Amino acid sequence: MHVVIVGNGVAGTEAATLLRSRDRDCRITVVSEESDHFFSRTALMYVVSGQMSYRDIEPLERDVCARLGFERVRARVTGLDPERKLLTLASGEPLAYDRLLIACGSEPRRPPWPSYASLRGVGHLVTMQDLEWLEEEVHGRTAVDAPPRPRVHETDLPSPYKRRKAAAASSGKRSTRPVIVGGGLIGIESVEVMLAAGLRPTFVVREEWFWPIALDAAEGTWIAEELRHHGVDVKLGANVRDLVGKDGLVSGVDTDQGPIEADLVVVAIGVVPNTGWLGDAVRRDAAGGILVDEHLRTSAPDVWAAGDCASVRWFDGRVRPEQLWYTSRDQGRVAGRQLAGETDAAYVRGTWYNSAKLMDIEYTTAGLVNMKVPGEQSWYYEEKGTVRSTTRIVHTEGRVVGFNFLGRRWDHSVCTRWIQERRSLPWVLDHLDEAAFDTEFVPPLRIPADLRRQA
Amino acid sequence: MKLQAQQGLMTTYRSPWRNRGPVGIAISVALITFYCVLYFGGTTLTIPYGPSISWPDPLTPIAQALGLRHKWFVYGLLYSFGMIAGGTWYLRQHGNSRYHQLRIATNIAVQVVLAFCLPYALAFVGQPEYYFSYFWPLSYSNLFPETLQGLPPYLAAYSLVGAFVIAPAASVLFGKRWYCSWVCGCGALANTFGDPWRHLTFKDSRSWRFEKVAIHTILVTCLVMTIAVTVGQLLHFKAEWPYQLGGFLKGWYGFVVGAVLSGVVGTGLYPVLGPRVWCRNFCPMAALLGLTQKIGRFRIRVKPDMCISCGNCTTYCEMGIDVRSYAQSNTSFTRSSCVGCGMCAHVCPRGVLRLENAAPVASDKRRQGIDAVDF
Ligand SMILES: Cc1cc2nc3c(=O)[nH]c(=O)nc-3n(C[C@H](O)[C@H](O)[C@H](O)COP(=O)(O)OP(=O)(O)OC[C@H]3O[C@@H](n4cnc5c(N)ncnc54)[C@H](O)[C@@H]3O)c2cc1C
Ligand code: SF4
Predict the structure, then answer these.
(1) pLDDT above 80: residue B363
(2) Do A21 and B345 touch (CB under 8 A)?
(3) Per-residue pLDDT, A80
(4) Cβ–Cβ under 8 Å, residues A107 and A323
(5) FRET pair for A28, CA 20 to 30 Å: which of A44, B21, B247, B349?
């Protein structure tokens, strides 16, 4: 049996290793346009800033493919013919499969601005090639152990894995006035990269406060305060209308709050499924996500999809892609078992949780927060002592449904268990220290007695 | 003050002296030269089948000029200054962590008080020069009969109780970090003066295999040497072979392990191999405490299904442990080499890791995903 996996991200790699652990003999081919080795997309910012090297962000030793007998193909796949069970590579070569896993991830969402495509100095932070481009813009060179440039068959097709030409290469100058557009996680990571390079970026956020899908006004305001404290020019509620250019290089951003000078623009307005190359070969939703059932099967026989490119059913019943590292990993594991013939393997998403670091502020969430649950109320406590932190617990009808924490570390698995056990707010407040995950010697969170009584 | 963050690390590889470049190598050469002068100064070192090198000894005159009894006090002084300077750097980088604040303060206090002032002052009250923060087998001569006989009974008792009761018992309770990261001078120098190079430690499985063989070989050698010397000295076999064997082993052990591996290689190569080369690969004390740590309560707890495999923890592990491989497979763990410096938990951007002393729970043992595939 010949199993082909398109994509060597976390979903593709987990699937391949899991399949190999079940089946020592089948032929496994992993196709990737982006990179020779599996790397952590979540760590791209650390390479640009200098906190890690290219090698450091690869989770596995480089001989893993040889050891596990994976054939690697470094090429762009341009088409799928599910009837003849054939993939087409950009070189025109066909690649036949018996079973296929599509784990082709996301690509950056492109902005609607008229001059976006024509200017140098404009890009994203999503792929390995974006990383190389951004390093050149910010530092004037790529890092010490940059991998050899990709040996990919060049096509005229648009691809997120094409290296952009840097404005720094034309002007001979590194960026001094970076602008980041988009107030989400990749946006704030890009801001941190600029700060590490000694630059003072402008951060253009469309919403009224930072990251309203995850934070409420007070929480988002704290993050904006922290950014400003580090010298970031945070522009809230600002919409970008277009970019301004000079001699083919970007020179500014035109917003409804006025123009901003810029010699580098990082567009971080989200990601979309990287599935344009599939055409009608498998059924996709309006946003491009490949529709799969709970076994991650697509509409085509012997074709599965996993990771960022697959639209799965969420805890709220809606179907859309889950663009997260650990959900991609879990889906990869389910797909691996499916490829090995375990037809009952299913992907079931439990209670929502996530964590991040916003500048130096720890963030943990679990359950339904900012979801407008009927009758919901928030219990909120802001701690301002040796540790600054906020704790928000969402509850309705006598039970707790969500947690939002900033400034301290918490064990989300304890919180999700409490949500499933339908614990009451007073009970949770009495047991909160069981979910604490601060490092040793950090003074524990003390909730004032009157706030506890209010609950 | 904000605790628990990772600021200060962002530009590591972009500092030219921190990435195995020419500047780092030059620093390394300077350090190696210093250690050769320190250990071999005033002697002529004959390399078998090679040249003989006479090393100058500038440190002894400096000691005399400063009114210090011998050159090792000059070294102790430099050591203390190096640690204070490195500790200041460390706290500027990672000082937003309570664990690091307390740990580095303890390190510096132990060095200045127990490893410099007290040994210096003991002579004024008619006591021998004694280092309370070093135990056998790191101070390998501590348990030789002639050493013990030369000490007042309370100090001889401290040497024995320290080596056989305090050190192992404390590592069962708290992990070997109580010594390697809080007390030991070698570890403290690595964590202060050597900290700028901690990301350079090799992380691959080859280096792990080397470590396991090397460190346990030295532990066994140290045991054999100690027993041989003890038997030889106790039985007064003066001219007999046990005494000669003991003396022979002691001489070679002192040269290879005591001087070359702990000083010249261990510290001299900080900017090339990372700061814990000695602790990780050669220190017999670390090997012994590592074994007790394995049966004790210390572990690194992993929050389930939260790791994003970014690799910060592995990159900044000075002992070369691939922390990420445990974190991404949801496995709380205790590795015998872990010195509990706390950096993995500190740098993790998702708060996945926590150092703790606690009884193991059954769920810790499940290992899944990529790393569970064992071929
Ligand atoms: C900057 C950044 C930060 C992030 N931080 C977090 C975080 O903190 N937490 C979190 O949970 N998630 C985070 N994510 C999201 C997370 O990285 C993704 O969810 C995850 O990497 C998706 O993995 P995947 O395997 O589905 O796809 P990918 O990692 O995108 O892999 C897809 C692979 O498919 C290959 N491919 C695609 N198309 C083709 C083609 N046509 N031909 C050949 N090969 C092709 C490419 O080579 C690529 O390597 C972050 C993402 C970014 C960009
Ligand atoms: S444990 Fe933390 S630092 Fe280590 S790889 Fe996982 S997320 Fe990164």
Answers:
(1) no
(2) no
(3) 98
(4) no
(5) A44
**Six-digit token string for A379:** 């219990």
- Are B359 and B195 in contact by the 8 Å Cβ rule? The answer is no
Instruction: Compute the distance between CA of residue B327 and CA of residue B349 in angstroms, rounded to an integer.
Output: 13
Helix axes B284-294, B205-234, angle to 10 degrees: 110
For B237-289, the pLDDT digits (tens) are 666 777 788 888 999 999 999 888 998 899 999 999 999 999 999 999 999 99
CB contact under 8 A, B4 and A10: no
The closest ligand to the CA of A91 turns out to be: 1
Which member of B10, B12, B308 has the closest CB to residue A42?
Answer: B308
> What distance in Å separates the CA atoms of residue B194 and residue A202, rounded to the nearest whole number?
36
Query: Please, what is the average pLDDT of chain B?
Result: 90
Query: Are B262 and B152 contacting, i.e. CB atoms less than 8 angstroms apart?
Result: no
* Superfamily of structural domain A116-269: FAD/NAD(P)-binding domain (3.50.50.60)
- Chain A positions in Cβ-Cβ contact with residue B100 (cut-off 8 Å): none
Q: What are the strands, taking DSSP E only, across A115-194?
A: 122-123, 178-181
Cβ separation B4–A43 shorter than 8 A: no
- Cβ of B314 within 8 Å of Cβ of A56? The answer is yes
**Distance, CA B6 to ligand 2 centroid (Å)?**
12
Helix/strand/coil for A260:
strand
Atom of ligand 1 nearest to the CA of A76: 42
Cβ of B307 within 8 Å of Cβ of A353? The answer is no
| CATH fold for the domain made of A353-454 | Enolase-like; domain 1 (3.30.390)
Instruction: Mark A431-448 as b/e (b = at least 16 C-beta within 10 Å).
Output: ebeebbbbbbebeebebe
- DSSP letter string over B137-172? TTSGGGGSHHHHHTS-HHHHHHHHHIIIIIHHHHHH
Tell me how many degrees the CA angle A14-A19-A23 measures, rounded to the nearest 5.
155
Domains of chain B: 5-287 (no CATH), 297-365 (3.30.70.20)
User: What type of residue sits at position B113?
Assistant: V
Strands A94-96 and A86-89: antiparallel
Q: Using 50, 70 and 90 to split pLDDT, how confident is the model at B51?
A: confident
| Category of A372 on φ-ψ map: left (φ > 0), alpha (ψ -120 to 50) or beta | left
Domain A116-269 identical in fold to domain A353-454: no
CB of B63 closer than 6 A to ligand 2? no
Ligand 2 atom index nearest CA of A40: 5
Report ipTM for this prediction.
0.95
Window 298-357 of A, Cβ < 8 Å to B: 325-326, 329-330, 333, 353, 355-357
Q: Which atom of ligand 2 is nearest to the CA of B302?
A: 1
Which stretches in chain A have pLDDT values below 70?
A: 142-157
CA A423 – CA A420 distance, rounded (Å): 8
Task: Give the minimum alpha-carbon distance from A150 to chain B in angstroms, rounded to a whole number.
Answer: 22
pTM of the model: 0.94
The CATH code of domain A2-108+272-339 reads 3.50.50.60
Contact by Cβ (8 Å): A427, A399: no
Phi and psi, residue A26, nearest 5°? -65, 155
Distance of CA A120 to the CA centre of its chain: 24
The better pLDDT of the pair B13, B157 is held by B157
Give the max Cα distance, chain A. Answer: 71
The DSSP code for B219 is H
Each domain of chain A, given as residue ranges in start order, spans 2-108+272-339, 116-269, 353-454
Both tokens of B204, joined, read: 């691959």
SS (H, E, C) A36-98: CCCCCHHHHHHHHHCCCCCHHHCCCCCCHHHHHCEEEEECCEEEEECCCCEEEECCCCEEECC
Q: Is A229 on the interface with B (CB under 8 A)?
A: no
